[in-house]
Amino acid sequence: MATDTLVRRTPAHSSARPSKKEGVGLGARMRRHWQLYAMLALPLIWLALFAYWPMYGAIIAFKDYNVVDGIFGSRWVGLKHFERFVESYQFGRLLKNTLVLYTYELLATFWPPILLALGLNMARRRWFRRSVQLITYAPHFISTVVVVGLIVVIVDPNSGVLNQFLGHFGIGPIDVLSDPSYFRHLYVWSGAWQTMGFSAIIYLAALTSVSPELHEAAIVDGASRLRRIWHIDLPAIRPVAVILLILSIGSIMSGGFEKVLLLQNTLNLQTSEVIDTYVYKLGFASQVPQFSYAAAIGLFRSVIGLALLVMANTIARRFSKSSLW
User: Is the pLDDT assigned to residue 189 strictly greater than 80?
Assistant: First the structure.
């Protein structure tokens, strides 16, 4: 009799527990796990203060802003500054320089990390893999100012290592920094050297999810290394590569502003003047700052970048079934 009573009570007792858990609200969960929410609060506060709160200042792109009247007291002018930029003689050159430079950078810096990660993943000797990864990873921590200083020293037409090397073959000296045709190559490939090792870490992390049994089965079937890379490793990192490519396309209109500005001089402006540096000069470096005009150009650049991001995400979702949203 006691056993039958215990059996009848057990289901009722077990069914009561889930309903109790389901009734826990957000406040109770926050009190229970307040440490996790406290850690989450710091990046949210930073995001609100430095990413969302300053966005209200974008309205000066539609006004004739002056410091005396302030943002809300300045006169509305609508799309006047946007029309001025589109109709200016600088528009075509700035748009071309920006798209060519950052598209070149995207194409040149996208594949080296993948090749490096695949090579390190196939390396058999552990000490060699760690040494190569350390050597290629270290340049990421060098500041942009130091990198530009190294470039200036290396390509100096009088005492630079590059011109001394070319001098042995009867070539030079070549003033690389003053020649507009060299600017893009100098900017892009120095950036590829600096970011290749750090970007490869993401692909190496994706390759760790590949089961060793797949490679063992492929070896038994007689597959070569290239075959295993093509049919096993590349499909494993494809979703990660697509996501990184989409993010890179979204930021194609706003690349390394600091590096462009530091490498820029009056002799290479033909190819080095991009939208970011032009906005900086209008808003901060000119004798009469044009805040509204500079804000309009910056907002125009952001809208183009958003359009490219949405387009890249749509194409990736349709053809590769990997996307941001």
Answer: yes
Q: What are the structure tokens assigned to 217, written together?
A: 């089965």
Q: Which residues pair with 64 in a beta bridge?
A: 75
Look at residue 8 and tell me whether its pLDDT is greater than 80. Answer: no
Paired with 204 in beta bridges are: none
Angle at 311 between CA 306 and CA 317, to 5 degrees: 125
Token reading at 176: 């690389």
The per-residue pLDDT for range 113-130, each reduced to its tens digit, is 999 999 998 888 888 888
Question: What does the block give as tokens for 170?
Answer: 């009867």
| 275 neighbors 301 (Cβ within 8 angstroms) | yes
Residue 39 tokens read as: 């850690």
Structure tokens that stand for 168 in this block: 């042995």
CA 116 from centre of chain: 19
CA atoms within 13 Å, Cβ hemisphere of 3:
0
Which two tokens mark 136? Answer: 């290629």
pLDDT at 209 over 90: no
Of the candidates 203, 160, 200, 199, the residue with the CA atom closest to the CA atom of residue 182 = 160
Least confident of 19-33, 226-240, 303-317: 19-33
Which residues make Cβ contacts (< 8 Å) with residue 163, sequence separation at least 6?
A: 155, 156, 157, 172, 173, 174
Q: Comparing C-alpha atoms, which of 102, 135, 141 is closest to residue 116? A: 135
Residue 6 confidence (pLDDT) above 50? no
Residues 6+ away with beta carbon under 8 Å from 100: 184
User: Which amino acid is located at 138 in the chain?
Assistant: A
Smallest Cα–Cα separation from 254: which of 189, 300, 190?
300
